[in-house]
Amino acid sequence: MNSKILILSAAMLGVLAPVASAQQGTVNGAAGGAVTGAIVGGPVGAAVGGVVGAIAGTAIDPPPQRVVSYVEQAPIPADPVVIHERIAIGQPIPPSVMLTPVPEAPQYTYAIVNQQRVIVDPQTRTVVQIVR
Questions:
Q1: Same domain as 110, residue 52
Q2: pLDDT digit string, tens, across residues 82-127
Q3: Is residue 68 within 8 Å of residue 119, measured between CB atoms?
Q4: Is the separation of the CB atoms in 62 and 92 below 8 Å?
Q5: Do 71 and 124 belong together in one domain?
Q6: In this predicted structure, what is the pLDDT of residue 97?
Q7: Does residue 49 contact residue 12 with C-beta atoms inside 8 Å?
């Protein structure tokens, strides 16, 4: 049984390795999650752990300081946006919130919600960082 787990873990790492240069945080999260999941839950645990780890790995990578600085200096809108949902890193921002692109880094958008500045991945609408 242990040899199956080891082989499956090695196979998962082999499949994910080519992506490493493009999405380092995602790969590290997926690989770590797959290995942990395999140890705890066998082959099914490896698959689930890889997916969960990939999501966590993506959320961990902070945006560059130039993006944070841009969002810190952005003017507060005249009509403040207030939502009832809790804002948290790794959680999606509601579709009703309008996201503003960061001009020098199109892979990031931001919003000022509940008097908090948040940096968001525009593809998934996931909060990447809450600027304090």
A1: no
A2: 999 999 999 999 999 999 999 999 999 999 999 999 999 999 999 9
A3: yes
A4: no
A5: yes
A6: 95
A7: no
How many domains does the structure of the chain reveal? 2
Angle at 20 between CA 104 and CA 13, to 5 degrees: 155
| Residues 17-44, mean pLDDT to the nearest whole number | 55
**Residue 24 pLDDT > 80, yes or no?**
no
For 107, what's the count of Cα atoms within 13 Å in the CB-facing half-sphere?
A: 7
Render pLDDT for 54-79 as a digit per residue (tens, 0 to 9).
665 554 478 999 999 999 999 988 88
Q: To which residue do tokens 């309008």 refer? A: 98
The whole-angstrom separation of Cα 70 and Cα 89 is 19
DSSP calls for 48-89: HHHHHHHHHHHHHSPPPHHHHHHHHHSPPPSS-B--SSPP-T
Q: Are residues 94 and 55 in the same domain?
A: no
Q: Which domain holds residue 81?
A: 65-131
Q: Token digits for 14?
A: 């082999």
